[in-house]
Amino acid sequence: MEEKSLQYQNKRILFVYRNYSPESPGYKATVHIIEYLKERYDLVTHCNLDEKVVEFINTAGPGKKISALVTHVPYKDSVKSLYPVSHFMYERIMLTEAYQESLLILRKTKILMDIPIIAYTGAGNFPLLANIFWEVGGVDQIIAKTADPKKDSKEIMNVLEILIQNYEKLPGPLPEPIIKIEGDYTTTEVKVNLNAGVGFTSAAAIVKECDDYHGDVSMKKVNSAEVTETYNAKGILDFLSSPILEGEKVAILVKGLDEKAERLVKRLYAAFSSRYPFHMDFGKFDKIQAEEKI
Q1: Within a 13 Å sphere around the CA of 243, how many CA atoms are in the beta-carbon half?
Q2: Confidence class of residue 294 from pLDDT cuts 50, 70 and 90?
């Protein structure tokens, strides 16, 4: 076997596979993928997605840091009855429940160590499922299983390369927001850092945060030429009808000029600058301010 290139020899991949019987096509495909990954990466394997995966990642020493996770995503049997369902919200709730245990394990790994996660699954990669995987479990990419393990191996390899490179370029923590006054509004601008942008989970959290505020709260997409698309931050439908994408700049406008308005602006800025919708740290700058007063 050829020596691994310098680009990959320090990259350690954790591959979590299903416990297939040796006679099954799934077993042969798994063996092929493992051998394929070993040719390029320092590969570690684990059978079945469980809490031991979190423990392994959490205890990996400095020289054994995991660069990415490739895993199957087990579900409860109830998922089999979901596909004929047509009502969007009901289907979303049922799919979330079916995959919840697996996605919560993946969420824990994301919070412990911000690494790329690839779901290699026979469930497909239709938009609703992909959205749930991103928002609940922090899954960066779904690769749908096919009957061709060579094709699947190459796709996993290509996606791994891209994701690892992208994660190495992630920006550091954002500074405190620059607060401005515009008429009756307290405002700031923030570049959206949320993985996959503002989806259902993050939009619901933002609406909940703004709901108790006494005045108007709105957001506007900002580009180099003009300000476009105003969102009512107390209504979830605005966010869902025209999603705010990762990397876009958003102006936050809170009506009011007092301390409460400024605090809400800072909390929304912190939320947009968070990496994942399940780990939105609204209170980030509250903590900083409290520490400065000590």
Answers
A1: 13
A2: very low
